[in-house]
Amino acid sequence: MNLLGPVMLDLDGCCLSDEDRRLLQHPLVGGVILFSRNFESAVQLFELVNEIKILRDPALLVAVDHEGGRVQRFKEPFTVIPALHVLGEKYDENANTALQNAKTFGWLTAIELLAFGIDFSFTPVLDIDYGVSQVIGDRAFHSSPDIIAELAAAYIKGLHKAGMPSTGKHFPGHGGVTADSHTDIPVDERDLDTLLNKDIIPFKILIPDYLDAIMPAHIIYQQINNKPAGFSSYWLKEMLREQLKFTGIIFSDDLDMQGASCISDNYTKRAQTALEAGCDMVLVCNNREAVTDVLDNLVYNVTDKTSQHLLKMHGKAVMNWDALIKTEQWQQAVDIVLGYKQ
Known about the structure:
two-stranded antiparallel ribbon, 342 residues
């Protein structure tokens, strides 16, 4: 039996190439993240995911960024999910309705992805909307950390009800910087007390009962540590593991983002640094040369213990798409979600 390794990579197209199959069989690989370029139709997506799943035993993790709004990789026949900020706006009008609908949003997002064999989406965003970060913006539930925690808890209840694990991001908080870590190396100048009393609150509230995984930010919190959070043992081991008692999975953000470039130009060094700092799995996306470099050179001992830890992120699908869309629960959920302005 294979073990799941610590690398999650991407694919170029809508079906597996011979090179894809070879890379996915590599013992350091444990997962695949899908993008819009990997989606053409419902039949094609089902066949692609199925082919990925049968390559290995246990099956590789299959993930996607499918938050809604600007970040939703798959369209028709998937329900178009509004950006989660609409739930924050609804909360300000009617908190009870917003919380009920947040659970519906989570359930619908999860149940549709699970119907195609996709294990999880990297969601929800727990960042605070300070009105300064364009890359976060309406991806955030709200500007209040306590309301974010409430809405996210309801949303995750929906994910869990469908059979999908959750991933909170971007720890300890991406909302306080203007720069986009995809294209820049953001520096957050706020002190630890500010972060503890603001940005970290949703994570702290949700860690005991709701968060199965966490993705740290590619942001340097200059007054606290000189490395981006995803490469910092202070943030991942001391803060997340020891102080906040988080026992779930820690995923790096994409190592090809500009926010990771301050670690090294060498992608193996980036991966090694992230794993040594406390990440359980690193994402290497949109750069096949970087994937090859990491798989050829990364030094990492894949064990049954590390593999079993990652296996917790497998989703639990309960029905296929054709059966799902015949259910009254699905139709009611679609009506609620589409009732929000896109």
